[in-house]
Structure formats: C-alpha cells, structure tokens
Amino acid sequence: LLTTNGILNELRYCCDIIRFRAVVLAPIVEEIIFRGCILFQLQRQFQTCGALCLCSGLIFAIAHLHHVVEMLYLGYPLNMALSEVLPQVLMTAIFGVYSTLIVLRSGHLIAACIMPIQPTYDSAFAELGAFLKAKSPLTAENAFVPLSNRIKYVDYCAHLIRCLQSMINDANFDKIDVATFFSRVIRLLKCLMPLKMKSEFLGDKPPVKSEQAKRVKISALRHALTRTWGKLLEKGLPDDLMLEALITLGDDQMEKMTDTAQLLGPYITVIFDPPASSSAASLPSWSRAVTRALLKVIHTGGLNYDRLYPRLYALLGQDLLVCPYADRFLLDLDIYLTSIHVPAGWLSAFSKRLFQLSLFGTAPLSIMPALITVGGNVLIRHLPCRVLIDRSGSQDENAPTMAECGPGGDPYVYHPEDLASDGSAALASSLWELACLECHYQSDIATLASRVRHIASNNGMNLLPDVKNQLESGKQLQVGVERASNQYMSVLEMTNARMPNLTPLEGWLMPTENSKALA
C-alpha cells in the first residue's frame, strides 16, 4: 500500500492534471462508482463469486482502452500505443478481480480504491523504452519529459540506470537507427547524476543499513553511471559516434563519475595513443579530440600514463594547423604544460615547436594568437625555459644567439618521436621565431610576439591573455582579414589587372598534400 509520504512525493514531482486524474481521481471515483454502485447490482446476475470477480475485472479493464486514443493524440504510432496499453489492461483486469474479491469478502470499498493505484504508475522501463524507440522527434520529446522530471530522485535514478544498462546490452544495432539511439542515450546520460544532486527519495527512504540503502547512495549511483558509459562504449559504436561519446565525456561528464581510470581509461588511451599497427594511428586528429577526456581521467581518476608528454609532443605536427579539433587541443595543451614535474628541456621543446608552427605558411590567423600564447605561458610558468629568450653569456658562451639563428642553422629540429633529444636541442637554441613574428603584417600578432619576447626583462608583463579568449580573438582577426582581402581582390578584378605568380619564400615551409590529407 502507498503511504502518505509516497503519495505526497508522487504529487510533488508530477503534479499535473493528467497525472492527478490517473493516480488520484480515477482510482477513487471510478472504483466508488463502479464497485460501489454496479458491483452489487451485478451480484444478482451471477451465481458464483468467481464469475462475478472475473466479469467485473474484465469490464473495468476494457474501459482503459481509451488510453490508446490518448497516446495517438500525443503522437505515438498505433502499434506502440497498443503495446503500451494492452499490458496495462491485462494488469488492471488481474487487480480488478483481486480487488472485487476483497470487496466481497470484507465489505469495505476502501480496498477497491487502494488496490488499482499501483498499476497506474508508468513503469520506468516502459517510459525509457518509449523514449528510446520513439519514431518521431515529437514523440521522443513527449516521452523524455516524465523521465527528466523524476531523475532528481535517487531511488528512481537508480532504477532508471539499471533499466538503461539493460537496454544498451539488448540493443541490436543491425535493426535500429544507431545514430538516433546513441543521441537519445547520450541526452539521458547527461541529465543523470548532476554534481550537486541531493538525496531526495520518490518513495520511503530505505533503512540505513539495508541493501537497498547501499544501492541508492550517491557514490554507488556515480559508479553505476560510469559502468553505464562503459557499456555504451564497449557496445561497438561506429567510429564517429565513439569519438563523439569520448568528446562528450571530456566536456562536462567525467566529474560526476567514479573509477573512471579503470572503467573508461582503456577506451580513451587506445584512441589517444593507438598502436602503430592500428588504423587510428594515421588519424592524429582523433588523438587531439580526446585529450580533454584523458585530462579528466588523470585529474579525477588518478590515471598514470607514462607516454603522456611524448604523445602530446608527437601531435604537434604540421597537420595541427588544419585540424578541426585544434582549438580544444590547444586549450588542453596549455593545462598539460602547467605541470611542474615535466623536465625543462621537454617544456622548452614544446614552446619552441609552438612558435615554429606559427611561422609555417599554412598557419591560419585564427589559431596563431593561441599558439603564441601557449608557448609564452610555458616561459612565464617555468623560469628555466626563459633561457630561450634571455641567454646570458655566463650560461653558455658557445650557444647560438637570436641574431645568429635561422632556419638553416637552428640546432633544434622537430622529431615527433624523440622528445628527449629535441629537449636538449631546444635548450641549446633560442626563440628567434619571435623576432620574425614581431614583423608580422597583423599588428595584434606582432604586439603579442613582442610581449612574449620581453617576458624576462624587468619591464616585461608576465601575464598573457587567456587561451580561450585568444582563440576567439584569432577567429575575429581571420574574419576581418578575409573580408578585407575579398574587397581588395574585387577591386583588382574590376581593373583587369593581372596578378603575378609569386614563388614561395626561401626557407618557408609550404603546405603539402600529405599534411592536408592527415587532417
């Protein structure tokens, strides 16, 4: 039987007219009218109690077929409406027979009002199935509303997570639209277990030391949520959906989970650092896309990954300049390079390579401010790396100076798979690239390069703009330059002037077909 607290909790999370009719009004009024007024009239027509109970239950159950019309009005297809309502009709018939028997034996109408209340609750499994199997966006939206209203209760959330795990296991990707199923599962997972979730219960709070109380603890639910993500990832998703799932995990989902290093780490590391024989090894853009998810696993799950920085360094290839995930990768790289446990030589190699990328002919203006800022932040946070812009004679008289270095004489040469040797070479080099960037045609780039070059001076400003803001600023610069260049080209075309064929400048790296293909 439902307690008073259970009824109040039910009304609190879904106090709408339809729910009030189904849960309160219908069981009380219909039972009083039907069993109180009609039951005893039917008793005169039947000779046995069994026949009366059976007939009473069937008549009352058939009356519930009006829910089919209601579901059709909400947008459900006919076959789904019938599949949802017929089990309810069957359960209502069974409970109708039982409640009729109790009324006849006890003589109290209150039994008829209480017994049918429980079957009117929509099953979480049925509601979840209606959402995942909906044929249209409108139907899916209508089915999602009751789910989103109830997941704030820990007991309902625990049951829903178990149902979701079961449906993921039973899903047959050969017979369903995988993309639609995936998007709806991800939408539901995003809503489950927010960071500041309170321990509210839909029903009665279980005893403290009971088994049910252990299952509805916030920590246990967060572990169950992590396992649900793991079941989704091990289901064999297509490559694009797998990558989308890992990107979603890294954005805002990992913080509300536990045991991520054990349950989710293997799926992330195999994409971040795939084996050489794997097909994903030729797609470094995938590795850049999951750096944020790996960062969250390291911070929240305690993952220890030895090849972290060598792999990050290998991802600084020229194809980064045309990678669709370059923005998020640079944001993550700036956080990775804040560690004080990384050798100074390695950090110098990262900074040197970032400034080197800024000089490439393929470097778009949209990410140049971010490249310079991330490289400059290394010099600000790690004092030993400032030798690249402030090499005193007492440190190394034979070290090349900024004026002596150039594309042909720089001791630093980028080797993607040899961070250790590149670190030593970077410490022997200097950031002559900054002097070149100070002559950039775009004044914002030139000013930023000048600020970085004077970091070590007494009057230097040891503070650079935020990388995220620099990415937005770079996009605005790119739009402005493209607009101006289009205007100038339009004027030249109107004058019928011939544009000369300009050869690439000596010493500058130009785009290759391989670099474009890798992106």
UniProtKB/TrEMBL annotation:
Q: Which GO terms describe its biological process?
A: CAAX-box protein maturation; ribosome biogenesis
Cellular component annotations (GO), alphabetically ordered: Noc4p-Nop14p complex; small-subunit processome
Q: Which residues form the CAAX prenyl protease 2/Lysostaphin resistance protein A-like domain?
A: 20-115
Q: In what residue span(s) does the CCAAT-binding factor domain sit?
A: 296-449
The GO terms this record gives for MF are:
endopeptidase activity
What InterPro entries has UniProt attached to this entry?
CCAAT-binding_factor (IPR005612), Noc4 (IPR027193), Rce1/LyrA-like_dom (IPR003675)
Origin, by domain of life? Eukaryota
Q: Which PANTHER family match?
A: NUCLEOLAR COMPLEX PROTEIN 4, NUCLEOLAR COMPLEX PROTEIN 4 HOMOLOG
Q: Which family does it belong to?
A: Belongs to the CBF/MAK21 family.
Q: Tell me what this protein is called.
A: CBF domain-containing protein
- Which species does this protein come from? Rodentolepis nana
